[in-house]
Amino acid sequence: MGKCKVVAISNQKGGVAKTTSTGAIAAGLAIRGYKVLAIDLDPQGNLSESIGADNQSRPTIYDILKSKAQVRETVQKMEAFDLIPANILLAQADLEFTATGKEYRLKESIEPILGDYDYLILDTPPSLGIMTINAFTAADEVIIPTTPSIFAASGIMQLFSTIATVRKYCNPALKIAGILMTKCDPRTTISKDIRELTEELSNAIDTQVFKTFIRCSVSVEKAQAERKDLFTYDKKMENNVTKDYDTFVKEYLKEEEKYVCLLYTSPS
Questions:
Q1: Strand runs (DSSP E) across 112-174, as ranges?
Q2: DSSP 263
Q3: Edge-to-edge strand order for the sheet containing 175-184?
Q4: What is the pLDDT along the chain (268 residues), one digit of tens a residue?
Q5: Mind giving me the DSSP string for 48-80?
Q6: Torsion sign, CA atoms 75, 38, 101, 173
Q7: At residue 6, what are phi and psi to the nearest 5 degrees?
Q8: Residue 129 Cα to chain centre, angstroms
């Protein structure tokens, strides 16, 4: 593929399927032959635990950021993709990482492995603290998952404000790939109304709402109970939510190809 692409999955609102989306997108890319590393940046360690990683006895992202471990020694080989796990120690980050350059700790830490992967997918915490800032500083782009809820939709503007600040001071090339609607029931009026509101917000922040939306399914909880990502749990893609994420990954890759074509055909 060439240059490794670093993608942050982010929304400071909890309950928007951010971690589920991170695991599904990472696995969806991996089954297409891409080399993928996911990094859990959430102190709750939900991504790590949901796919069966060891985030207790082995080094985590916290050890990397504290310079107690090298990045390669923290990578765990999961069934679909590689993972650097997180645990509750990361909750200390906002208090501990205060020195000048704190926003660049993650970016500097992952540089040695960028040549090993096609994609790095960052699962960010449900907050706009130092770990989310680190993710935005390291990332090429952000995917924003959101649910058909007025509170989730209105939180996008606050998230955009943080992205704009990171662009100004740390990462001017950071781009918003788009907004991904999750936990949708397309039959309800509220889902349609919130999508329209979200599309208005996307225009205001110069991005898109992806055409693909992710439906609700109990398979998400079942996969987590078995400590597997959705694509590993549902290998035959018999469930709607797995099909939706598969369709989304296809759409995302097409959008990326379109962007690359524009980049190389635009007049200098």
A1: 119-123, 141-146
A2: H
A3: 76-77, 82-84, 36-40, 119-123, 5-9, 141-146, 175-184, 209-215
A4: 469 999 999 999 989 999 999 999 999 999 999 999 999 999 999 999 999 999 999 999 999 999 999 999 999 999 999 999 999 999 999 899 999 999 999 999 999 999 999 999 999 999 999 999 999 999 999 999 999 888 877 789 999 999 999 999 999 999 999 999 999 987 787 778 888 888 998 998 999 999 999 999 999 999 999 999 999 999 999 999 999 999 999 999 998 776 555 444 555 4
A5: HHHTT---SSS--HHHHHTTSS-GGGG-EE-SS
A6: positive
A7: -105, 120
A8: 16
CA dihedral (188, 14, 225, 21) positive or negative: positive
Tokens of 166: 């990171």
- The letter for the amino acid at 157 is M
The number of C-alpha atoms within 13 Å of 142 and in the hemisphere containing its C-beta is: 31
CA-based nearest residue to 6, from 101, 80, 114, 134: 114
For residue 113, what are its two tokens? 């492995």
Structure tokens at 99: 């020195």
Count of other CB atoms within 10 angstroms of residue 134: 28
Give pairs for 110-116: CB < 8 Å, separation 24+. Answer: 110/6, 110/39, 110/71, 110/138, 112/70, 112/71, 112/72, 113/37, 113/71, 113/72, 113/75, 114/3, 114/4, 114/6, 115/4, 116/4, 116/35, 116/37
Q: Who contacts 8 (Cβ-Cβ below 8 Å, separation ≥6)?
A: 122, 124, 132, 135, 136, 138, 139, 141, 142, 143
What are the structure tokens assigned to 183, written together? Answer: 């936990």
Q: Structure pTM? A: 0.92
C-alpha atoms less than 13 angstroms from C-alpha of 253 in its C-beta half-sphere: 17
